[in-house]
């Protein structure tokens, strides 16, 4: 083989199916060979993995890094955080903002901003779908590159106006061969319980969880699954948090319905007991639950009910979050996660025998790529795929400190957690973008990764 751009040698190469020793050859941003070290070609650059685990770069299929008018976060700060955290592709999730991506015009504007600022690769979901006008360009948006469509069923001003709009959206998403992504909460029930709590003067952080009990999520997941069954669309349940949700998704899968689900590290590792220490910094949608919900989600990760792990990254400054000191109901919901996702999952998952390393590759790399049409370009170590990697040191210890974050987030409920195991090197398309917490990649290096509809028509 001719000389190549990059070789990674002395590696434990981890895929969803196998762990083997050897090396990887990269040319023009693509993997061109996987073989034993003596068979590797000469290269312009060589990375010695030192016997450490080399995984596909993580794909975070649910992040908020660009919500003009709501967030100070940008594609630049968010993707720098991703690079440090071993995430080589983000999928930006829309919210109700000044650049609502329900039209091709706005989608193209957001794409252009990402291409100018991103340090890692990115794809885009479209949405929020609220009104009839918001589902009119679904097919055109898929052709423009959208990989999924967000619909918030409840819990704020972003909520879809009625079930008819949601059902019609599902049908159009099905026709476009895309994926409907639901933030599953019963809007009417949540609003009723919230107003009841406010009237009683309840202002403790735990009141936030009580205003959104498990039934708020479970009813919405149940309704979304039923609607998707009749509409014939692929359904993806965002940031699932409840044991009841797990059973509903498991039953749908058992009936061969195309339903997938994601969870977050915070839903796996935090619960209502953490309010005592974290207070308003733990406010997010959906809220934290009980220990039994944590356990049900871990089980669901291992039995195939849950398909991927995401961050739902949504970072705020302390000043923005501290609104909750006076009124918990005014606290902006969300926490940062891009820098901590892999460290937490390796430390609390792999190193504590809650999950195998190969299964982690499925959940954080391969499955999100498959669900949203990025596979096999992304999410896998195989010849022809993009050369996206993270090198993991399973023994490296570190304390999570938000003052070291690359994102704009200044507070995290994981502050002070001691983790063991984390990404130490991140490579995107053959180029190092982060090295031991230091950013190497430059804004504008990240590429837009379109839906498979676009790729097939190129």
Task: Explain how this protein is built.
This protein is α/β, with parallel strands linked by helices and 458 residues long. The protein folds into two domains: 4-54 and 385-441, Roll (Urease, subunit C, domain 1), CATH 2.30.40; 57-371, Metal-dependent hydrolases (TIM Barrel, Alpha-Beta Barrel). It is built from 15 helices and 17 strands. Strands 1, 2, 3, 4, 5, 14, 15, 16 and 17 form a nine-stranded mixed beta sheet that branches. Strands 9-10-11-12-13 form a five-stranded parallel beta sheet. The longest helix has 18 residues, at 214-231.
List the helices and strands and how they pair.
Layout: E1 4-14, E2 19-27, E3 30-35, E4 43-48, E5 53-56, E6 58-63, H1 75-84, E7 87-92, H2 104-117, E8 121-124, H3 138-144, E9 149-152, H4 163-175, E10 179-183, H5 187-199, H6 205-210, H7 214-231, E11 234-237, H8 243-254, E12 259-263, H9 265-269, H10 275-278, H11 291-303, E13 308-309, H12 318-321, H13 341-350, H14 357-371, E14 389-399, E15 418-428, E16 431-435, E17 438-439, H15 452-457
Parallel strand pairs: 1-4, 1-5, 6-7, 7-8, 9-10, 10-11, 11-12, 12-13
Antiparallel strand pairs: 1-2, 2-3, 5-14, 14-15, 15-16, 16-17
């Amino acid at each position: 083989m001719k000389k190549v751009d990059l070789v990674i040698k002395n590696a434990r190469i981890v895929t969803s199916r196998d762990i083997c020793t050897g090396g990887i050859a990269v040319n023009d941003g693509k993997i061109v060979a996987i073989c034993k070290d003596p068979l590797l070609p000469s290269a312009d650059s060589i990375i010695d993995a030192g016997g450490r685990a080399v995984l596909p770069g993580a794909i975070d299929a649910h992040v908020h890094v660009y919500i003009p008018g709501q967030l100070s976060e940008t594609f630049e700060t968010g993707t720098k955080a991703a690079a440090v955290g071993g995430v080589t592709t983000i999928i930006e999730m829309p919210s109700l903002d000044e650049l609502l991506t329900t039209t091709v015009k706005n989608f193209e504007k957001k794409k252009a901003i990402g291409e100018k600022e991103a340090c890692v690769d990115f794809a885009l979901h479209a949405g929020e779908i609220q009104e009839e006008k918001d589902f009119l360009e679904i097919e055109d948006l898929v052709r423009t590159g959208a990989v999924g469509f967000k619909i918030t069923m409840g819990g704020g001003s972003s909520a879809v106006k009625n079930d008819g709009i949601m059902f019609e959206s599902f049908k159009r998403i099905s026709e476009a061969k895309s994926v409907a992504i639901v933030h599953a909460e019963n809007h009417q029930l949540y609003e009723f319980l919230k107003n009841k709590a406010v009237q009683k003067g309840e202002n403790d952080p735990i009141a936030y969880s009580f205003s959104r009990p498990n039934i708020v999520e479970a009813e919405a997941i149940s309704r979304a699954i039923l609607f998707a069954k009749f509409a014939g669309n692929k359904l993806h349940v965002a940031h699932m948090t409840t044991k009841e949700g797990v059973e509903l998704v498991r039953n749908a899968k058992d009936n061969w319905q195309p339903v997938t689900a994601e969870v977050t590290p915070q839903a796996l590792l935090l619960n209502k007991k953490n309010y005592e220490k974290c207070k308003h910094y733990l406010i997010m949608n959906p809220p934290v639950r009980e220990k039994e919900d944590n356990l049900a989600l871990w089980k669901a990760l291992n039995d195939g009910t849950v398909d991927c792990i995401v961050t739902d990254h949504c970072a705020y400054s302390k000043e923005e979050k501290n609104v909750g000191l006076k009124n918990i109901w005014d606290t902006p919901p969300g926490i940062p996660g891009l820098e901590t996702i892999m460290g937490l999952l390796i430390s609390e998952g792999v190193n504590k025998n809650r999950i195998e390393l190969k299964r982690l590759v499925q959940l954080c790399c391969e499955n999100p790529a498959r669900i949203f049409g990025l596979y096999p370009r992304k999410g896998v170590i195989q010849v022809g795929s993009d050369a996206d990697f993270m090198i993991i040191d399973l023994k490296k210890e570190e304390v999570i400190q938000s003052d070291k974050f690359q994102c704009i987030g200044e507070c995290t409920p994981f502050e002070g957690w001691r983790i063991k195991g984390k990404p130490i090197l991140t490579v995107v398309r053959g180029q190092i973008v982060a090295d031991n917490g230091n950013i190497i990649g430059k804004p504008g290096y990240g590429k837009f990764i379109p839906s498979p509809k676009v790729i097939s028509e190129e």
